[in-house]
Structures
1.
Amino acid sequence: MKTLLIGGKWLGAIDGETIDVIDPSDGMAFAKISRGRAADVQQAVSAAQDALQGEWGSKTATERGRILQRLGQGILDHAEELAAIEAQDTGKPISAARADARAVARYFEFYGGAADKVHGQTIPYLDGYNVSVVRVPHGVTAHIIPWNYPAQMMGRTLAPALAMGNAAVLKPSEDACLSVIRIAELAMEAGLPPGALNLVTGYGAEAGAALTSNPGIHFATFTGSPEAGALVQQATAANHVPCVLELGGKSPQIVFDDADLDKAVPAVVKAIVQNAGQTCSAGSRLLVQQGIYDRFVGMVAQAFRALQAGVPAADLDCGPIVSERQYRRVMGLVEAARDSGVPVIAEGGFAADLPRGGYFVRPVLFGPVPRDHALANIEVFGPVLSVMPFTDEEDAIRLANATDYGLVAGVWTENGSRQMRVSQRLQSGQVFINCYGAGGGVELPFGGVKKSGYGREKGFLALEEMSTTKTIVQHYQ
Ligand code: NAD
């Protein structure tokens, strides 16, 4: 199996080893990827360095943008194929995989269009001096992405990096990366020069660690667990390389007693059930004001009882969890919560014809969850919603800010002043008022505060993250 893209060529790992790809719907291996390691990573980094000195490095911003836009179109032309690959590899329902394919195309369209719209500055300085500040690429950028949205994450991290003229080395997750491999093929078909994008499949502790510590990289971006994020941070610090980290969250949905409850219920449920809860921005804590607690939680419970988990083709509310390891982790947290006496308010069900060996879990609504319980603080990364009551605005803000994380928050209230008061005091990278997620939003800067990480992806801010500045001082007397 040749799944390493290095200098425009598809190669196997130097030592020939492979990793089985598992279908989470039945636990069976159905494909193989190459197990890249340090020597393969070194070749990829060298190819990226060569690309910067060669054809890719000589492209204008407009030319880079055109290539990215062609790739966006290529992805749209192959959207159904990509959706089928993503659905089998990750287990997500087919309509969600189709939405992901459209979203990844959008990243390349957006940043393709933006590539030649990044302007520098001029600075008034001493008489006889002309000073300009120009944006320049970092050079070789390292990208480590997780398994929950492989295609989307590829677009999110890669499109702005290539738009700014970097040459990239991408290490996707060993648990799901087949769509990434296919999109890399489409990138070559779209005319991306050899070495502008290099792909090294493999394990995090091998290919990932080798990439972040490689002295030839100039920047790294990572999305995944706080534990691996800390290792990336250590490696890049030792390498004197800046990094962007996106490490997940425990995002609150705050529902006040004047909220439009009918509008809030489907959004609250979708925010935790989408992708079987394996979303960094999942709304995994539901904070409900005491006066409407019974009524609103009753409405959410009714919606939970109607949820069903099934295979991707059945296109139900959830698919399976991505891997046996993640399945055991989610089930362990659910069982521990039950054993510790946290009440289960409602549970979803399974489709009748589930295959054996799949990693399916029932969506579950727990509450009231004690404020100091693991379920109130730990990112489960499964379809598990923790409900907690609050008394007033002050209490809601305290509770919302009470975890180590700070990625996304939702505020549900019809009171405009409260919308602003609360959103300004929430410790969070994004706040949604009377909506949640808003369709992903390629245009909207995204990233965390506190232990959710730092740096921003998406929107125009990503173009700043993926580049640096050069100040040019010209004396013209
Ligand atoms: P992980 O952090 O181990 O994996 C994410 C990526 O990092 C993968 O590509 C992996 O190969 C790579 N990686 C792992 N160790 C590395 C290292 N030392 N150096 C460089 N790269 C390395 O995530 P996981 O173990 O698959 O998931 C565990 C938990 O992480 C989940 O339960 C969830 O809480 C969290 N998570 C969050 C996100 C997110 O979007 N924020 C995504 C996936 C997982």
2.
Amino acid sequence: MADINANYLNLRSSYLFSEIAARVAAHAAKNPDQKIIRLGIGDVTQPLVPSVIKALQDAVNEQSTAAGFKGYGPEQGYDFLREAIVKDSYPGLGIGADEIFVSDGAKCDVGNFQELFATGCKVAITDPVYPVYADANVMAGRGGAPDGSGRFAGMIYLPCTAENGFVPELPKEKPDLIYLCYPNNPTGTVLTRDQLKVWVDYARKNDAIIFYDSAYECFIREPGIPHSIYEVDGAREVAVEFRSYSKTAGFTGLRCGYAVVPKTVTGKAPDGSRVALNTLWNRRQTTKYNGCPYIVQRAAEAVHSAQGKKEVTAVVEGYLANSKLIKNAFEKMGLTVVGGTNAPYVWVKVPMNSWDFFTLLLEKAGVVGTPGAGFGPSGQEYFRLTGFGSPENTREAIERLRSLKL
Ligand code: MLT
């Protein structure tokens, strides 16, 4: 008999965004004439920029010649992209091209990286949290059973609430692995360098590893807010960083991201010796992954060019303008809002249970957002909207929200 991995039975029956998509599809089927505005899942709406399209087209054309054709590529990514990343995104931070592992997106990397660690490792996540960090560890047997409140009994939770200014406090119980995401999904909040240093210092002192998801760093506008954890001294000893071209450059469909795994970050072997995570991740990727497509990596390379950067920055500015509109609109309605200035996400305190608010907005306004409860019990009275809609749809969504007189 093939016994299943029973850890899967501890998961919620469906992934948050699949559940939302199913509810929206059911509503749309019943209301075929209603225009639904989707500001739920953080999917982009603006087309790929001209530099990316040109790089894609050139790379496709190369494939039609014997000289330009590419078969299997390096599992870690092509040197041209790894070097462009180091030069453009990590100048002066001591990161080498052989510490960059290109992939088909940050979601897979943040989900898979925990495989390098023992099942017995204790995991700390924020509450609310991007559900992938929790689910991946539950699948691996580190989560334990659901405790009935929306949490898992085996995880350490770091509440991020209005009371602590959405800044996670150091845990009482010592974790081995700590997931941090800044700018934060879902709250849209950021950490200052000093606030991030607290975590780096803690990890160094307690021999813990930080998984730092900085998929939204390109939305940071405030000076002094760190874009990378490696801006903090000592982070190269304890942190792995994940980045993505999805929100930066509209690659949610194209798929490309990368993990930064400094050779100086180590874990402990059973005999007490230290093993570089860079070596283990390389071993994992070469066995289980065949590399991001060449044409996509050429497209990603174009994002790092001077012209490409100019073009993608203009698109990001548009998304940020939408986020600010949403934030201002909710504030004018008298609701408390965070995020939306250094992040595409706006986190609103709502006057009811977040799933009820989701249903109200969908049914009465045809607007889709994400109920805060889906990110953890601390999100129960919050709702997340994204700035990733088109400007027209964002304005229309705001008008519809106003008419609800919340
Ligand atoms: C979100 O809406 O939280 C993101 O789109 C999820 C993701 O990037 O996978």
